[in-house]
Amino acid sequence: MWSGSNPICVAIASTAITPTSVPSAKDLTSGHSREYTNSQQQTGSPYSMSIRTHGSTGETQHLQHIPLKALVVNNKELTWEDISLTSELLGAGHFGEVRKGTVIVNGEMIPSAIKILKYGADDASRQDFQQEVDIMRHVGYHPYIVNLLGVCIYQGQQYMALEMAENGDLLKFLRNSRVQDVVSPTYVNNRPRFGGTLSTLSPVQLLRIACDVAGGMDHLSSKQVIHRDLAARNVLLTDSLIAKVADFGLSRGEGIYEQTSKRAIPFRSTALEALARRIYTTKSDVWSFGILLWEIVTIGGTPYRGMKSRTILGRLREGYRLPKPRNCEADLYQLMLFCWKTRPEDRPSFADLAEQIEIMIEDKHSYVNIDKGDDFEYEVVDSSDSEGDCLNDGFRL
User: Fold this and answer.
1) DSSP-assigned states of every residue in 140-177
2) Which letter, b or e, does each residue of 315-327 get, where b requires 16 or more Cβ atoms within 10 Å of its Cβ?
3) Is 120:239 a contact under the CB 8 Å cutoff?
4) 328 φ, ψ to 5°?
5) Which residue ranges does the record annotate as region Disordered (predicted)?
């Protein structure tokens, strides 16, 4: 059984550890934890961002680095004059949309994704919007979550300014990183050998993304927030490839949650106990993290491709788990299997996961192979089983 689930702490001033080896599967259950830091990254620090100084210099406004935490930790009510919207639409729904823009916080102009709840939205949508604001304020600042910059109400419309993540969602980014061009083969013993790589991302970058997500989720779990929909599509990437957990604003702020409403369930990333009994805990999110790790290693593959919702639950009850990707080392796959333990209490904490992935990053061994073999095939992306493929909660199992 895992233990040692004390929350990890991201320290701005800290030194990176340099472990010499990766523990065996047996050692992974020791549950020891340490202070987790990502400060060894030399570029794109999550603790600061480039912003334009709000002033009168026009096109020559200069960029400066200031701590992002100082701007967002006390997110505030914004005035309409603080917000500038562009015509670039980032997303849309029945009662609202998300547009690219900027907001002024503490005199600084910051790029932002601005959620707009349209005038005339129904009461349920307004309640959801307010709940999202409340939860984001509750969890506070963290470098590996999408942070709230501020909120505004103007002429009956509500606006929520969020941190901008320039590279969009992780799932699309992974799939776009797949190297599509096949280079000309060389021949060895009259057999063609194809060179090249699986992704424009390196093994270390892939693991770093996973480590960032584990750090962000550890912060959410320390605030008793259950995400319930952790997946690659709900992680955003900055221009320096820092991963930020997103869409947790409609999560639950309790340690355990039993779902009673008829809410759609993303069954491909949902834990066994949540599918079967609608019971959610942080350990349910850990299961989902294992699926996300599989998505990262497969460069955006579709979990349980071709299976229907009834089939997935039945197979999981029988002990079936996603197979090891061909480009994945056994130790990394074992980490996924730990996330998919049947008993939630046997699964690791997010602190444990962040620690073990950090050790793999520091190790010289490559745990994700991105070199194409002679007969390599990508995990298939099934557009019919896309990220919107959900099991409605009215369907009883």
Assistant:
1) ---TTBPPEEEEEEETTEEEEEEE--TT-BHHHHHHHT
2) ebeeeebbebbeb
3) no
4) -115, 130
5) 21-58
Cα 310 from Cα 285, distance rounded (Å): 21
> What is the C-alpha separation between 84 and 100, in angstroms, rounded?
9
Bridge partner residues of 294 (DSSP): none
pTM here is 0.76
* Amino acid 52: pLDDT: 32
pLDDT of residue 34: 34
Q: Under a CB-based contact definition with an 8 Å cutoff, are residues 221 and 232 in contact?
A: no
pLDDT digits (tens, 9 = 90+) for 26-57: 333 333 333 333 333 333 333 233 333 333 33
Q: State how beta strands 243-245 and 48-53 pair.
A: unpaired
**Which amino acid is located at 226 in the chain?**
I
Spatial CA neighbour of 274 closest among 261, 262, 284: 284
For the segment 239-268, the average pLDDT, to the nearest whole number, is 74
CA 251: distance to chain centroid?
A: 14
Backbone angles phi, psi at 48, to 5 degrees: -150, 165
* CB of 92 closer than 8 Å to CB of 126: no
Q: Which two tokens stand for residue 22?
A: 């990766």
> What values do phi and psi take at 55, rounded to 5?
-170, -155
Active site residues: 229
Asked whether the beta carbons of 87 and 81 are under 8 A apart, the reply is: no
Nearest to 247 by CA among 234, 259, 260, 256: 234
Burial profile 83-98: b = 16 or more Cβ within 10 angstroms, e = fewer: beeeeeeeeeeebbeb
- 96-124: per-residue pLDDT in tens? 899 999 999 888 899 999 999 988 888 98
> pLDDT tens for residues 166-224?
999 999 999 999 986 445 555 555 554 445 778 999 999 999 999 999 999 999 999 99
* Paired tokens of 329: 């080392």
In the block, tokens 């059984």 appear at 1
Integer Cα distance of 178 and 200 in angstroms: 7
283 is in an annotated binding site: no
Rounded to a whole number of angstroms, the distance between the first and last alpha carbons of the chain is 29
